[in-house]
Design brief:
This protein has helices spanning 8-17, 21-43, 46-62, 73-131, 135-146, 151-158, 162-181, 189-198. The protein has 199 residues and is an all-alpha fold. The chain folds into 2 domains: 3-97, Orthogonal Bundle (Rna Polymerase Sigma Factor, Chain: A), CATH 1.10.1740.10; 132-198, Arc Repressor Mutant, subunit A, CATH 1.10.10. It is rod-shaped and about 120 Å long. Belongs to the sigma-70 factor family. ECF subfamily. One of its GO terms (biological process) is DNA-templated transcription initiation.
Length: 199
């Protein structure tokens, strides 16, 4: 095909392929408005449509040497716009998944921290309640529930019968449960496990 047989658009595209900024601006003004409306319908966001449009023409400029002047240029632009809109939604989906992962991790971390604080608070309540036990009950409780000694071992240390140790423990546990129940604090699962370990 001779140069004189080129259409106006093909002539401009040839100039673009050779690096003409004037040709680029000509094509931008010729097609940008229609492409913008197409993108706006695709992404439903004016600012995003404008951003994609600018990126689209940047791609056209960077890949100008790949343009086939025998093919309808506007159709070429619309194909790029379609692909970029799809890429935009894929990016949104990835960001959404990342956000959900982040939110899940931070929620779990927050819950774990709250559990630890709740457990610490429960431990403090328990220690305070233990300190209010009568001396013999407190000693029996600490020997058996904290130090892990058997009723027999505690009885020998305290010079009392194993049955008396048992009675001290029953009354101690009853007192501690009542104190914690009346504390007005809602016990978390982690705190309950802590109580079970001692009570």
């Amino acid at each position: 095909m001779k140069l004189t047989n080129y259409t106006d658009e093909q002539s401009i595209l040839l100039q673009l392929k050779e690096g003409s900024q004037l040709a680029f601006e000509n094509l931008y003004h010729r097609y940008s408005k229609r492409l913008y409306w197409k993108l706006q319908k695709l992404v439903h966001d004016e600012d995003q449509a404008d951003e994609i449009l600018q990126d689209l023409f940047l791609k056209v400029w960077e890949r100008r040497d790949q343009i086939n002047i025998e093919q309808p240029f506007e159709a070429y632009l619309h194909r790029i716009a379609q692909r970029m809109a799809v890429d935009y939604f894929r990016k949104l989906e990835r960001q959404s998944k990342l956000y959900e992962s982040y939110r899940t991790v931070t929620t779990e971390l927050t819950e774990n921290v709250e559990e630890l604080f709740a457990a610490k608070e429960t431990q403090n309540l328990l220690n305070d309640a233990i300190s209010q036990l009568p001396e013999q009950r407190r000693r029996a409780f600490k020997l058996c529930k904290i130090e892990g000694k058997s009723h027999q071992e505690a009885a020998e240390i305290m010079n009392i019968s194993p049955n008396t140790v048992h009675n001290h423990l029953v009354k101690s546990v009853s007192f501690l449960k009542e104190r914690l129940a009346n504390s007005g604090k809602e016990l978390t699962p982690f705190a309950i496990i802590l109580l079970i370990e001692f009570l």
